[in-house]
Amino acid sequence: MLGAPVADAVTLSTRGSGLDRPDLAMVVTGGSVRTQVVRSPEPYFARLWQLLQPMHTGTERVSGDWEEGRYPPVRLTVVWGLTGVGGWPQTGSAPGGDVAVERQDQLFLAEDGTPWVRSDPAPEREDDDIRWHRAPRTVFDQLDRAGLVGGAVEGQRGTEGGDGAGGLSHGAWWALPGLAVGFAVGAGGTRLIRRAAARPGAGPPREAPRQELIDL
User: Fold this and answer.
1) Which of 77, 100, 159, 206 lies at a CB distance of 3.0 to 4.6 Å from 166, suitable for a disulfide?
2) What is the per-residue DSSP string for 78-115?
3) pLDDT category of residue 86 using cuts at 50, 70 and 90
4) Burial (Cβ within 10 Å: 0-12, 13-18, ≥19) of residue 25
5) Which DSSP category does 163 fall into?
6) Are 59 and 66 in contact (CB under 8 A)?
7) Higher pLDDT, 112 or 162
């Protein structure tokens, strides 16, 4: 579905500008609670980058209903992260061993079939900075035919910050190879996530490394 030249071009765009660009995507499709972690060298990451355009900073005018949280069912939620940050001495993990949460994008279809992206450029902050833009229809169609953008859940509508919108406002955990990542949207100032020793209590299984949210 995606040739190596396209994937290589996207990888170069995330690394070659000197800016802090996301190199990790945590993906939840439809109403699923299962999360897929995708890294920048992977072809799926390249397609998600083309579809959602996570470096896009502008916004388009949308209806009042959408602004108030009454938008169509979410097909895909992606939380973008930047690896290789933080670490000792700011945190207890190895230098560069933390992950920064950069942005949350949500994809849904308007009634006319146009794919739209609802973006929260700073999901760790409790503010009303929500931005909207149209996604490339050709890229969406390719991913949709491949079954990679989920499906709308029957009877489920978007609601601001709620589970029905596919949002992650109540926190979530992801398992990456060698690293479990925890994230809570709206935890003011919470940005970096690091490893912590396994211990009893809620969260990931004890046999896996436990993580802590770090308040900046």
Assistant:
1) 77
2) EEEEEEEE--TTTSSSPTT-EEEEEEEEEEEE-TTS-E
3) confident
4) buried
5) G
6) no
7) 112
Contacts of 147 (CB under 8 A, 6+ apart): none
Half-sphere CA count of 64, side-chain side, radius 13 A? 0
| Cα 86 to Cα 66: distance, rounded to the nearest angstrom | 36
- Cis bond leading into 89, ω under 30°? yes
pTM for the full predicted model: 0.70
pLDDT band at 38 (very low <50, low <70, confident <90, very high): very high
CB atoms within 10 A of CB 195: 19
- Residue 100 has a CB neighbour count (10 Å cut-off) of 19
Which residue is associated with the tokens 């990679």? 148
Angle in degrees, CA 200, 171, 211, rounded to 5? 40
What is the rounded average pLDDT for all residues in the chain? Answer: 72
Residue 36 CA to residue 59 CA, distance in Å, equals: 27
| pLDDT score, position 14 | 47
Backbone angles phi, psi at 96, to 5 degrees: 75, 15
Q: What is the DSSP letter of 41?
A: T
Q: Rounded to whole angstroms, how far apart are CA atoms 9 and 151?
A: 28
Furthest CA-CA distance within the chain: 52
State what percent of residues in the chain have pLDDT above 70: 61
